Structure to design on (291 residues):
């Protein structure tokens, strides 16, 4: 598993608009994959907002232009091309999170399930407990919150998938909107258990620089659907290669057999350069903003 923020910058957690994402990578998944840079993985990426701010790739590219220009507010209030409703949605989703382990996540976009069914997924913490955001939060307070939780005890999430909503052909033409829970209630399909652990060893963090998550690391039976997912295929691939090139790391497909020495202290938390968060004994945090 790997936790991260929205990007493209790496500000202190307290200024990162409270958006979190999680990448789950399953190993030893047999069968042909839709992206050939990994042979035995199946990836699932979820984010904390319940839906994307923008409705399609064209609007997303437009918003990213203003984000890079650091004038993203103008995207929402531009008199010639206003997006006031999207601005309200952004404000609703921008609350600060107490911990990535206490946050609910959504796939936002549809995926194929079997033949002809389009579904979306949600990942919900099993515990309703909420910790407090520190009054004087450090740059990496989200990672530190995870470390404080997992050092003494395990935690778990429940993965939910909704009932069938509509045909995959509708979704693939870009008409698939967020599935309303009241029309297609989520049902539990799996449980994700995180054992008590420390995840901040230097070797584990370094290994993370080799990793890449992409929803197109997928079997055909779980194909990503709709135009924003299709854009992710190229975008995530290019961002991953750029990040690994900047970090001078080669792409590595994990096997699940990796082992890392346990971190003896949490001092690495203080020294980390970015607010990107991650955990798991075998698949560590990555220092990057792409999925």
């Amino acid at each position: 598993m790997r936790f991260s923020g929205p990007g493209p910058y790496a500000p202190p957690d307290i200024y990162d608009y409270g958006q979190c994402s999680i990448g789950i990578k399953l190993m030893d998944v047999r069968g042909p994959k839709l992206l050939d840079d990994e042979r035995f993985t199946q990836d699932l990426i979820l984010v904390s907002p319940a839906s994307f701010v923008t409705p399609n790739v064209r609007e997303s590219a437009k918003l990213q232009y203003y984000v890079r220009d650091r004038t993203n507010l103008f995207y929402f209030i531009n008199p010639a091309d206003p997006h006031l409703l999207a601005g309200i949605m952004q404000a609703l989703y921008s609350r600060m999170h107490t911990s990535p382990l206490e946050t609910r996540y959504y796939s936002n976009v549809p995926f194929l399930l079997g033949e002809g069914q389009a579904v979306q997924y949600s990942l919900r913490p099993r515990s309703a407990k909420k910790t407090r955001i520190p009054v004087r939060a450090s740059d990496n307070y989200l990672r530190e919150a995870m470390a404080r939780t997992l050092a003494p005890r395990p935690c778990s999430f429940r993965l939910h998938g909704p009932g069938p909503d509509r045909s995959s052909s509708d979704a693939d033409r870009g008409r698939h909107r967020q599935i309303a829970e009241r029309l297609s209630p989520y049902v539990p399909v799996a449980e994700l258990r995180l054992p008590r652990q420390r995840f901040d060893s230097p070797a584990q963090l370094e290994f993370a620089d080799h990793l890449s998550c992409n929803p197109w690391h997928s079997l055909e039976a779980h194909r990503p659907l709709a135009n924003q997912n299709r854009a992710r295929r190229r975008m995530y691939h290019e961002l991953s290669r750029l990040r690994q090139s900047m970090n001078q790391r080669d792409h590595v497909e994990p096997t699940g057999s990796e082992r890392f020495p346990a971190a003896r202290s949490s001092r690495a938390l203080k020294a980390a350069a970015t607010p990107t968060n991650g955990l798991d004994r075998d698949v560590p945090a990555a220092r990057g903003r792409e999925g």
Notes: Residues 2-48+97-278 form a domain with the Catalase HpII,  Chain A, domain 1 fold (CATH 2.40.180.10). DSSP finds eight helices and eleven strands in the chain. The radius of gyration is 19 Å.
